[in-house]
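Lecture 7 notes: from sequence to structure.

We start with a single chain of 158 residues. Read the sequence below before looking at the structure.
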Amino acid sequence: MKPVSLPRLIGYAIIALLVVGVIGMGVVITGGTPLEVTPMIMVLELFLALMLIWSGIHVKRYCAHRKTWVNALNALRIAVAARASAYVSSIVTGTLIALMLISMARIGAPAMVANAVISGLSAVAGIIWCVCAVIVERWCVIDADEDPEHHSPNVSPA
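Now the structure, written as tokens:
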């Protein structure tokens, strides 16, 4: 499995920023208010980053042949979860940056100042989540089996 592409993650974040930014500014121009962001998003993102790092450390222990609960199948699941987290966190981060910028358009209202601050802090937490996901996905490279009988390319079942 090829590692996740960093330019692709940045591209997804920019696309999310542009889409949410255009729609949100349309809402603000017509007199509406942008989406309000709850601080729990930041807590959730940091929790997911910590869970990924914890799982990734166990994958590293498995690769070093030390005692852990991870096996090859669990390492694959952790790698896929890290890859999916990288994509999701880049999109969520782009969305949160757009919401922060939209809230700054109405900076005179105290609620929009709070929304801009919470969106900005949540975007920072999203970047941390994305970096953790990319690191863990890089950790989840498993070496091939050491047994010589498993390396034969022309083994047939019959």
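Helices lie at 6-29, 40-63, 72-105, 110-139. Keep this in mind for problem set 3.
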